[in-house]
Amino acid sequence: MFQRSLLQLVVLMLLLLPTTGASACEYCVREVGFVSLYHEPYRVVIAVAEWTDDAERDRVLAQARAAIGPGNVVVSIGSAEDGGEYADVVDRAGDHLPAAVVYAPDGRNELLALSPDGDRRGLITTVDELTHSPAREGLGAALIDGYATVLVVEGTDADANRAARELAEAAIQRINAVKSGFDRVIEIGPALRVITAAERSDERWLLWSLGITDGGEAMPSVAVLYGKGRRLGDVLTGSELTDHALFTMLSVVARDCECDLDRGWLYSNTIPLVWDDALRRRAYDSLGFDPESAATRAAVARILERGPGSSGANVRDPFLEDSGTNIGIPGLTIYNLNDEASSVPPAVVASATQRNASDSPDDTGHANSTAASNASADTVPPPASIVGASPMWMTLFALGGLALLVLIAGGVLIAKSRGNH
User: Fold this and answer.
1) In the chain, how long is the greatest CA-to-CA distance?
2) Among residues 149, 186, 302, 327, which is most buried (max CB within 10 A)?
3) If residue 334 lies in a helix (H) or strand (E), which one and from where to where?
4) Alpha carbon 371 to its chain's center
5) Which residues contact 244 (CB under 8 A, 6 or more apart)?
6) If we measure between CA atoms, which residue out of 77, 49, 82, 81 comes closest to residue 64?
């Protein structure tokens, strides 16, 4: 009798185990943004003249890779006789070789660099601009250490630019006021970076990667970057750019149970960004797990493959038709919002004094992120030595609790059995 009762108890505990593990999400949205899955990298295809010898090809390829740096951009080199994309580059460049074309993960492509005089130095300088620009200085460290980065890209309308900057500052203030109550507490709040109309030409490739054209637009645009330089949702501009929309986007970053969100909107493309060993080490130390490990990627893949809007390996379409709670943000539907709107503070309206203030949050945020990028970091351990900490400890904790309950229940049953004898 006693053994049968104890066996039934053990079976009940084991049945409860999956429920216990499923009640806690392993990662928040911000953490998922550091894990690279599915998307192709940016590709730089360099074409050289057919008579270029192998040694010269190797030199051009090595210099281009060194200029771009480690990250999410890969480089290849060939000539027209190699066919395919190399022949396409030659067709577009004509006699101005070597030349390069950049291909975005979404299929867009653009002529990146030409060498009118056959001098590769000009090509290497231009290729460098694909991943390096003032707006990206220290951005990787800022994304690791902080919540997210709000990027304001100004247009030619001065009044609209000022309004966009005030709106971004207000949304950041609201996040800072309530972020301690979010699913995941992130100590450093969102940072603000501004690209002025005069600076747009220096940020051509950053804007291109975000889908923002550089054609002298009057209205400003705002993008939210998180994780490993990933864009959150759509770029906001015109009537879409509201305090509510930007605040809601930012609040998603700290949400747990990211399986409730549209995949295409959540897991969009990254910007071209240098991600070296120092940043890898910094990310591991900050997150407590290795976002590049096989175990982490498998766990995030499972998250992205289940729930509303999931589409396997093609997590790209930001416009989904599933039913849900439409909150008035282009491309975004949140499922099981649990009435989070009740916790949203009222909108912050900038006063005339605030509008005229000379010290703006983006100056402080940019300075902090730049200083952070100069911090030293240790050598990154090999991926096999880094193990995801959060899921393992949650599982051990659940198993330990269940084992304790089994022992207590077993002791009670033993005591009762002896008392009956």
Assistant:
1) 101
2) 149
3) strand 332-334
4) 21
5) 328, 347
6) 77
How many residues are there in the chain?
A: 421
Joined tokens for residue 197:
């109309």
Q: Which pLDDT tens digit goes with each residue over 29-70?
A: 888 889 887 667 999 999 999 999 999 999 999 999 999 999
Is 206 buried (19+), middle (13-18) or exposed (0-12) by CB count in 10 A?
buried
Cβ atoms of 99 and 114 within 8 Å: the answer is: yes
DSSP state of 71: B
pLDDT digits (tens, 9 = 90+) for 286-334: 999 898 888 888 888 777 776 554 443 333 323 223 333 444 444 444 4
- In this structure, are residues 206 and 133 in contact, taking their beta carbons and an 8 Å threshold? yes
CA atoms within 13 A on the CB side of 12: 9
- Provide the total of helices (H) and of strands (E) in the chain, helices listed first: 15, 11
CB within 8 A of 249, min separation 6: which ones? 224, 232, 233, 236, 329, 332
Beta bridge mates, 192: 150
CA dihedral 260→261→263→269, nearest 10 degrees, is: -140
| Tokens of residue 157, six digits | 């309308």
Mean pLDDT of the chain: 74
- 388 vs 293: CA distance, rounded Å: 8
Q: Tell me the one-letter amino acid at 230.
A: R
Q: Which amino acid is at 406?
A: V
For residues 209 and 109, the answer to whether their CB atoms sit within 8 Å is no
Please provide the DSSP assignment of 243-277 as one string: HHHHHHHHHHHT-S-GGGB-HHHHS-PBPP-B--H
Following CA atoms 122, 124, 130, 133 in sequence, which dihedral angle do they give, to the nearest 10 degrees? -70
Structure tokens, 215:
């054609």
